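Supplementary Methods S3. Complex input for the flavin-adenine dinucleotide-bound model.
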Amino acid sequence: MFLELTGEQRLIQDTAREFAKAELDPIAATLDQEGDPPAFLANLRKLAELGFMGLNVKDEYGGAEAGVVAFSVAITEIARACASTAVTLSVNNMVCEVIQAAGSEAQKKAYIPKICSGEFSAGAFGLTETGAGSDPSGVATQAVLDGDQWVLNGSKIFITSAPYAGVFVVWAVTDRSVPKGKGISCFLVEGGTPGLVIGKEEHKTGQHASATNELLFEDCRIPKDALMGKLNDGFRIAVGELAGGRIGIGSLGLGVGLAAIDYATQYSTERTQFGQKISNFQAIQWMIADTYTELEAARLLLMNAAFKKEQGKPFAKEASMAKMYATEAANRACYKAVQILGGYGYTVDFPVERYARDARITTIYEGTNEIQRTIISREILRSIV
Ligand SMILES: Cc1cc2nc3c(=O)[nH]c(=O)nc-3n(C[C@H](O)[C@H](O)[C@H](O)COP(=O)(O)OP(=O)(O)OC[C@H]3O[C@@H](n4cnc5c(N)ncnc54)[C@H](O)[C@@H]3O)c2cc1C
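Predicted complex, serialized as structure tokens:
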């Protein structure tokens, strides 16, 4: 067992950390409070130039082919400065990976290089609907073949990066005669296609800089060959890809949690009460000790899941464990960071309240942590029954 990063992984981690400090950290609070979409998108382009848009994508499609461990550590470093940027990267990587896994050669060549190079600001993953959240088999958007075109009708909600995505991976029902989930297919829809309408933007608790929108399909016509993978195989494709995406969200949570406790620990060495630094109080020391221990455990779970995925081994249970644990540890870290800062921690003058808001969604998206517990227990029980 070897728990050290390789030289290449360390280089990617260092590059991500330096970029985050130089480019993301200085504007993260402004993006959160006031918004600055051009600055946000400019940073995505710079990250694409550095090769961060396709870290786990094959070289032949424009990716860095650096592997899942490298992807995980990079997302953590980016999230330490800006969770919105990190989630955009994570979703982009997921879109590239799903096209790489299920797309035809022509689809891979048409879209993946554009996401990796930054020609597309982003890709979008269009699964969730009002009636299909934790249960994606409830997808109701329809795709009907009309000559040599598919006609899409329906709507999606909560779609990350929708306003600036160059391509959307979209799930729609193609056979209503079979049981729920068996008749869903996966499609690629180009941004700007007539009938694809970007709907209302959600006003969220945190991660303000990343856009989250409704999508509407109003007789949206796409070519017959926009089908990705086999007809009616969409549910399997979605479930497989979500497992990989969970490593990204766990890594993001870890980054936010680390940012919060790093800040609070430093603060505790500067704030004086009762004539001494608050870091002298055992109550503060124990919060610091517990939090760093939990985040280290989260890191190891993430490395385990990422390593298994990289090795081509089954990793779904490990990804769910890592996502669940890391995102809950991150929320606890943020809660304690606010506590360590006292009243100041509850104001926008200090970053820990932003970290707490940014961390909150990580136990919900990419499968809620209740669903992760279902996946984990199902795998465990299956192995003994
Ligand atoms: C900011 C943001 C970005 C997002 N980005 C994307 C995106 O890019 N693409 C995309 O497709 N989706 C995206 N989502 C959607 C996200 O994945 C869903 O919100 C999530 O899967 C939960 O679905 P839901 O919100 O409908 O909650 P529900 O499914 O309604 O769940 C409500 C509650 O019931 C619980 N619950 C549901 N079923 C069970 C069960 N079987 N057992 C135990 N508890 C259960 C849940 O855990 C939760 O606590 C995003 C959401 C947000 C908020």
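Residues 149 and 385 are 47 Å apart (CA to CA). The first helix runs from residue 7 to 33.
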